[in-house]
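Field log, afternoon session.

UNIT: design team B
ACTIVITY: writing a sequence onto a fixed backbone
BACKBONE:
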C-alpha cells in the first residue's frame, strides 16, 4: 500500500507542493493550505464554464468537441440561445449552411428580439440563397439595432445578389458609416458603386478595403479590372503586379498581361499570359491573350514569323476548346487563316 501511496504523491506533484502529501502540515500543528484556502474562499480563478470551453474548441477547429459541449449545455437548458447559435456557427465554419439553419431558426424563435440571433440567421439564409427570407430577417435585426453593422452589411449584400444595387447602396453605405474600419463593408460598398457605374467612388472603397483586409486578393482583382475599365492602365498594371506576387493565379497573371498589352509592353504581356496558362491551361482569357500577342508579332513580321503564327493558332484553338461560345475569336481566326 505504501508503494501505491507514494506513486500517488508523485502523480500529483503540483498539488503536493501546495497541500502536502499525506498529513505533513497537520503533523506540524497547523491547518493545511487547502483548508485555509477553503476557509478564506480564495481558490484562484474559476475553471472555464462549458460555454467558454465550447467557444474555444470552435476557435481551435475542434468542431466535434464544440458540438458536444454545446449540446451538453442544451441538455441542461433547452432554451439556451447562445448554445443554439454556437452550434449554428460550427456548421457555418464547416460551410454546412443547411445544417446551420435549424439552429439559428430555433434561436430566433426563442428570442425574437436578439439582434445577434436575427443577423446571424439572416446570414445563414443569405448563404442558402434564400434571399427574400434573408431580407425579411435582416430588416427585423435592424428594428432591434438600426446601426448594426452585420445586418446592414448583410442586407446590402442580399439586395446586390438580387440585382437591386440601388437598394443595396443604402445599407452598404450605412454599414461603412457605422464601421469605417471594416474592410468587408468597404469592399461591398465598392462592388455596389461599381454596379451603378460610380467607378471613381468604387475605386476609393476598394483602396480602403485593401488596406483594411488581411486577405485582399478578391478586392485587388476587382480593383485591377475597374482601373482597366477606366483606362487607368498604369495603375491597373501596378495593382496586378502586386497581385501576382501576393497570390499568383491564372486570373491575376491574365489581368497583368492585359494591362501590359494596353501599355504597349507586348513582350512582358505575352510572358504574363504564358504564366497564366502554366497555372491553368483551361483559362481561356489567357489563351486569347497569348493568341492576340502572337498574332500581332506575326503580322508585324510581315507574316514571316511562322513560330508566332502557330503559337497564335494553337492558343486560339485551346481557348475555343475551353469555351466554344466565342464568335469574335472564330471571326479573327477566319480573317487571318488560322482555322
Amino acid at each position: 500500500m505504501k508503494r501505491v501511496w507514494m506513486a500517488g504523491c508523485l502523480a500529483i506533484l503540483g498539488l503536493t507542493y501546495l497541500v502536502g502529501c499525506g498529513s505533513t502540515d497537520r503533523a506540524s500543528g497547523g491547518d493545511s493550505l487547502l483548508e485555509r484556502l477553503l476557509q478564506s474562499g480564495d481558490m484562484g480563478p474559476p475553471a472555464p464554464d462549458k460555454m467558454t470551453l465550447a467557444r474555444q474548441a470552435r476557435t481551435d477547429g475542434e468542431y466535434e468537441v464544440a458540438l458536444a459541449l454545446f449540446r451538453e449545455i442544451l441538455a441542461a437548458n433547452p432554451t439556451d440561445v447562445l448554445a443554439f447559435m454556437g452550434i449554428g456557427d460550427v456548421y457555418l465554419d464547416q460551410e454546412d449552411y443547411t445544417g446551420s439553419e435549424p439552429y439559428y431558426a430555433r434561436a430566433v424563435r426563442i428570442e425574437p428580439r436578439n439582434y445577434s440571433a436575427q443577423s446571424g440567421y439572416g446570414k445563414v439564409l443569405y448563404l442558402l440563397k434564400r434571399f427574400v427570407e434573408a431580407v425579411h430577417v435582416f430588416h427585423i435585426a435592424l428594428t432591434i439595432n438600426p446601426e448594426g453593422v452585420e445586418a446592414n452589411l448583410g442586407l446590402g449584400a442580399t439586395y446586390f445578389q438580387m440585382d437591386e444595387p440601388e437598394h443595396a447602396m443604402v445599407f452598404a453605405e450605412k454599414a461603412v458609416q457605422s464601421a469605417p474600419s471594416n474592410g468587408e463593408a468597404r469592399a461591398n460598398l465598392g462592388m455596389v458603386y461599381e454596379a451603378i457605374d460610380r467607378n471613381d467612388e468604387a475605386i476609393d472603397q476598394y483602396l480602403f478595403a485593401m488596406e483594411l483586409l488581411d486577405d485582399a486578393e478578391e478586392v485587388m482583382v476587382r480593383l485591377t479590372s475597374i482601373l482597366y475599365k477606366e483606362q487607368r492602365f498604369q495603375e491597373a498594371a501596378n495593382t496586378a503586379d502586386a497581385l501576382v506576387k501576393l497570390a499568383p493565379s491564372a486570373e491575376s497573371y491574365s489581368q497583368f498581361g492585359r494591362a501590359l498589352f494596353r501599355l504597349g509592353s507586348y513582350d512582358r504581356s505575352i510572358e504574363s499570359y504564358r504564366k497564366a496558362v502554366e497555372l491553368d491551361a483551361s483559362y481561356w482569357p489567357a489563351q486569347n491573350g497569348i493568341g492576340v500577342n502572337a498574332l500581332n508579332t506575326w503580322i508585324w513580321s510581315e507574316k514571316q514569323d511562322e513560330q508566332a503564327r502557330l503559337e497564335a493558332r494553337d492558343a486560339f484553338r485551346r481557348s475555343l476548346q475551353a469555351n466554344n461560345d466565342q464568335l469574335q475569336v472564330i471571326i479573327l481566326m477566319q480573317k487571318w487563316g488560322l482555322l
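LOG NOTE: DSSP finds 21 helices and no strands in the chain.
NEXT ACTIVITY: expression trials, pending approval
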